[in-house]
């Protein structure tokens, strides 16, 4: 059973901006902030400034597009249309201007307006992404036109409603040429995104630890999402074993799961 972390109440609207800047290596576009977290009470409207800077040598045309997103079990982003996900933030959002020309070494600020409904059923975290994409360009001597896209990822929470939870819901183990593969499926049971880390230990029936595998840090699991971890362990001699995975998801307590298996 999971224990949830208690979060300190937010008495007023609070905006947290990470000093993260997303940039385009080819065309010199940058967006600030690249990631943003904002807490907005129900029934309130909030305007968020987003700045796009063109550090390239040429002027370019930029179009803004809002999307929903999640992260799949393999850790890859999946983008969907606005309103397609239960925790869609962009269904409450508008942006202006949506298109603009930006000259070299200049910046353009756009305004993202979020209007949170006065609905007492709203709770936890809502998320979305704003993409800024250039018009396709073909340079002399090239046969392919290139378009560059950068993004600002935005999380919005309803004050005093966030809870953090997670669980290991399934494990498996099987042999491979290098030894043993361990699959650990983590489920985000809370209502906000989490980053996970941890370790897996393998022990004999007498409790002697014979292998230890680190679970890489900072693996993102979105609200309602799962993450399948594939861990490579060493080769084991014949015998009875138990693998125990412990995952820290920044909750009040860690979560763990185990599986027993036989090596023949």
UniProtKB/TrEMBL annotation:
InterPro entries recorded for this chain? Ig-like_fold
Q: What is this protein called?
A: Pili assembly chaperone N-terminal domain-containing protein
Which organism does this record belong to?
Answer: mine drainage metagenome
Phylogenetic classification of the source organism: unclassified sequences, metagenomes, ecological metagenomes
């Amino acid at each position: 059973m999971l224990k949830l972390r208690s979060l300190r109440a937010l008495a007023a609207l609070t905006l947290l901006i990470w000093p993260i800047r997303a940039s385009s290596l080819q065309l010199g576009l940058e967006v600030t902030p690249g990631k943003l977290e904002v807490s907005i009470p129900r029934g309130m409207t909030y305007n968020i400034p987003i700045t796009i800077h063109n550090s390239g040598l040429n002027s370019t045309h930029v179009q803004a597009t809002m999307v929903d997103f999640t992260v799949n079990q393999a850790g890859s982003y999946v983008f969907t249309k606005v309103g397609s996900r239960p925790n869609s933030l962009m269904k409450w959002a508008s942006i202006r201007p949506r298109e603009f020309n930006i000259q070299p070494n200049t910046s353009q600020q756009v305004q993202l307006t979020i209007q949170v409904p006065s609905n007492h059923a709203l709770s936890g975290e809502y998320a979305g992404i704003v993409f800024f994409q250039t018009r396709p360009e073909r340079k002399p001597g090239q046969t392919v036109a290139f378009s560059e896209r950068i993004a600002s990822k935005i999380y919005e929470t309803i004050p005093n409603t966030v809870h953090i939870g997670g669980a290991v819901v399934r494990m498996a183990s099987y042999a491979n040429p290098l030894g043993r593969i361990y699959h650990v499926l983590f489920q985000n049971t809370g209502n906000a995104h989490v980053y996970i880390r941890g370790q897996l230990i393998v022990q004999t029936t007498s409790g002697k630890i014979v292998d230890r595998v680190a679970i890489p840090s900072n693996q993102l699991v979105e609200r309602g999402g799962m993450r399948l971890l594939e861990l490579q362990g060493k080769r084991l001699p014949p015998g009875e074993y138990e693998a125990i995975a412990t995952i820290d998801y920044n909750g009040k307590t860690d979560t763990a799961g185990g599986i027993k298996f036989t090596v023949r």
